[in-house]
Amino acid sequence: MLKSEKSFLAAILLCFFLGSFGIHRFYVGKIGTGILSLLTLGGFGIWAIIDLVIIVVGKFKDKQGLPLKA
Predict the structure, then answer these.
(1) Nearest to 11 by CA among 43, 55, 45
(2) Within a domain: 69
(3) pLDDT at 61 (0 to 100)
(4) 67: β partners
(5) Residue 67, domain member (yes or no)
(6) What's the pLDDT at 70?
(7) Rounded to two decimals, what is the model's pTM?
(8) Total domain count for the chain?
(9) Which domain holds residue 23?
(10) Would you state the pLDDT for residue 23?
(11) pLDDT average per 10 residues of sequence, the chain (70 residues)
(12) Minimal CA–CA distance to 24: which of 49, 1, 44?
């Protein structure tokens, strides 16, 4: 199975520390939702928390729909 070039650990750290700014979404190539997250401060924090959980359980995907590499 193909894996993304983007790192699972980097995505977790970016989401944990900068999730309110959507930096983890920019990292995986999701520019549009990254801008939306930036403008709403991570959906007022809720979206950032949901993204963190999705990343931790391994279901977060990059722009091409590939799972992040371990």
Answers:
(1) 55
(2) no
(3) 97
(4) 61
(5) no
(6) 87
(7) 0.93
(8) 1
(9) 8-56
(10) 97
(11) 94 97 97 96 93 97 95
(12) 49
- Residue 21 counted as domain residue: yes
State whether the Cα torsion 61-62-64-66 is positive or negative. negative
**Alpha-carbon separation of residue 20 from 2, 52, 65 (angstroms):** 29, 11, 22
Tell me what pLDDT residue 27 has. Answer: 98
Mind giving me the DSSP string for 43-55? HHTHHHHHHHHHH
Is residue 12 one of the residues assigned to a domain?
yes
The torsion angles phi and psi of 69, rounded to 5 degrees, stand at -80, 150
Q: Which parts of the chain fold into alpha helices (H)? A: 8-18, 23-27, 31-39, 41-44, 46-56
CA distance 41 to 51: 13
Task: Specify the amino acid at residue 66.
Answer: L
